[in-house]
Write a structure and sequence with these properties.
- The protein is α+β, with helices and mostly antiparallel strands.
- The chain has a domain of about 230 residues.
- The protein is built from 18 helices and 21 strands.
- The strands form five sheets. Strands 1-20-19-15-14-9-8 form a seven-stranded antiparallel beta sheet. Strands 7-4-3-11-10-2-21 form a seven-stranded antiparallel beta sheet.
- Helix 2 packs antiparallel against helix 4.
- The longest helix has 21 residues.
């Protein structure tokens, strides 16, 4: 990938790629990235830095993630890639019948019904236990300090915070009192540059750090969560928390033009990105700004999503194996469906979300691709009193259709949108990448991979390039910087093209590549967010 490091960025918004030798941390908040770098300089490795950055993000970007969310990671260490599934299960006693008895025909977005067991705290602890050099107490210390002492709110964060505040104000039928007390203590969302802090959040992080997350699943924090659920008529119990386990999984891959592209296996949707790449590798892609290139990308993505929304759930309950869905024969059969006109697939209706992604690397060769989320914005709107914990609404993705593979059931992991990515070549690590943002994520992965491998763009250029997103049927949204003439020609092919002025509709990504020849790190960060790369 050496040639990628040298290529000019034709899509530059603010900067070129960043280079370093000893260490690199890339994420959507400068304070969190710098906290990760601080841990590296204290003797921690890339895994420690990832934990520190992730913990800080629960404080300095609460609009997208939190202690009460889920996490996934791909960890490269000692020449091997490891996968971590830190997603939680639905409450043991929830069921379609029980939800209907509460007056719902579909899973609601807010309240206790969509709340699943949070996986974030145990994911941090497990990463630290297996691969970290420092204690969890040391890696969580920067986050604890930011929560207790406060931090100045950044511009894009302030905008999302205000949107969430206005949404909760308008939503009826739910108790958001604890959310307003925690995240809008002055009766409004904090403004740009204002200091926000949460002593409760700091105390919770301390309890997690001092007990290696045991307090969250078995101790005092678990008691508080279970009590809040019971008082509100929720399904989540302390037993559900006690049963939670983080799972080490074997990452899945496809080979794309000599590079191995890796994702976490289902219940994550990373397989959708791999399916699309499996289809697209059957074509020769040399010109990026080409109607034919965009057309084939969009058609492949639609076909991959049709399969994903139909088949993905907890892997043990899927009707087809990952091997079957990623077979060359099946990819060829799906590729044969792509013609000159836009097709109308039978797929779900993707929705937005709130997620954070980070990438880290150190001088020893360790690299981490890490993602965590509360799903939609702050999550369910449920905040556990006295803790600062905002609970995720991941169960919102369950189906109430008893014939659907992702049907709601007790003790089950749902279809999961958050996916970390990683690239290797000839058993050498190239590096971590990710594009957060609900159902945009596999689409962002495909676009970043192709920008890098097919079109030779360096990390910042690969991220800055105008993005597109398939939503449903033939509807495609493109960024306002997307080439207008190509958009017009795509319409002539039958695509329902719409220009979207909101840049954050297209995800937010990070990239770190390592040169196999020199070991030099090259990174890009999201220009559509308050992105930052901390380097050493």
């Amino acid at each position: 990938m050496e040639q990628i490091h040298q290529k000019f960025n034709p899509y530059a918004i603010a900067r070129e790629s960043i280079y370093a030798k000893k260490g690199m941390v890339a994420t959507s908040q400068p304070l969190a990235a710098e906290a990760g770098l601080e841990i590296l300089k204290k003797g921690g490795n890339a895994i420690d830095a990832a934990i520190a950055t992730a913990a800080c993000l629960t404080v300095v970007e609460p609009t997208s993630n939190g202690i009460g969310g889920d996490a996934f990671a791909l960890v490269w260490t000692k020449g091997e890639l490891h996968g971590l599934n830190g997603s939680g299960r639905s409450p043991e006693h929830i069921s379609i019948e029980a939800v209907k008895e509460k007056g719902y025909d579909t899973i609601p977005q807010f309240g206790w019904i969509p709340v699943t067991v949070p996986g974030v705290p145990k994911a941090w602890a497990e990463l630290s236990r297996r691969f970290g050099k420092l204690s969890l107490k040391e890696t969580l210390q920067p986050a604890i300090e930011y929560a207790r002492e406060g931090f100045p709110v950044s511009p894009i964060l302030a905008r999302f915070w205000k949107k969430a505040y206005q949404m909760y104000q308008k939503e009826e039928g739910y108790d958001f009192a604890a959310w307003f007390e925690t995240f809008a203590p002055d009766g409004r969302a904090p403004k740009v540059g204002e200091i926000w802090k949460s002593a409760d959040h700091a105390a919770t992080l301390e309890a997690i750090a001092e007990t290696d997350a045991a307090s969250f699943y078995e101790g005092e924090l678990a008691d508080k969560i279970a009590r809040a659920s019971e008082e509100a008529g929720g399904f989540l119990t302390k037993t559900d928390l006690e049963k939670h386990e983080t799972e080490w999984v074997t990452p899945i891959k496809v080979n794309y033009r000599g590079y191995d592209i890796w994702e976490i296996p289902p219940n994550g949707q990373g397989i959708i990105a791999l399916k699309a790449l499996n289809i697209l590798k059957g074509y020769s892609m040399t010109a990026k700004e080409s109607v034919d290139t965009y057309h084939k990308q969009m058609e492949a993505m639609k076909l991959a999503f049709e399969d994903g929304k139909r088949h993905i759930t907890e892997e043990i309950q899927m009707h087809y194996t990952t091997k079957q869905l990623l077979s060359e024969k099946y990819a060829a059969s799906r590729r044969a469906l792509i013609g000159e006109e836009a097709i109308l697939p039978n797929a779900g209706d993707p929705a937005g979300s709130g997620t954070v992604y980070l990438a880290t690397a150190d001088e020893e060769g360790n690299m981490v691709s890490f993602i965590q989320s509360n799903y939609k914005g702050f999550g369910s709107g449920v905040v556990i009193p006295g803790t600062g914990i905002a609970m995720q609404n991941r169960g919102w993705d369950f189906s109430m259709d008893e014939t659907h593979v992702n049907v709601l059931a007790g003790g089950k992991r749902t279809y999961h949108t958050i996916i970390p990515g990683f690239i290797t070549k000839d058993n050498d690590a190239i590096g971590p990448f990710g594009v957060m943002g609900g159902f945009m994520q596999p689409q962002g992965h495909v676009q970043v991979v192709m920008n890098t491998i097919d079109f030779g763009l360096h990390p910042q250029a690969a991220l800055d390039a105008p993005r597109w997103q398939w939503l449903k049927e033939k509807r495609i949204e493109v960024e306002h910087r997307f080439p207008y003439t190509i958009a017009q020609e795509l319409r002539q092919k039958g695509h329902d093209i719409h220009i979207q002025l909101e840049p954050n509709s297209f995800g937010r990504g990070q990239i770190i590549w390592r040169s196999p020849e020199t070991g030099v790190l090259s990174g890009g960060t999201e220009s559509r967010a308050d992105g930052h790369i901390a380097v050493w």
